[in-house]
Amino acid sequence: MSLFGAISISASGMDAQRIRAELITENLANADTTRTPQGGPYKRKDAIFTSGSSAGSFGETLAQFGNLAELSGGLPSGVSVSAVTIDESEPDRRYLPGHPDADPQGYVAFPKINPAEEMVDLMSASRGYQANVAAISSVKDMIARSIDLFR
Question: What is the mean pLDDT of residues 99-106?
Answer without folding.
Answer: 94
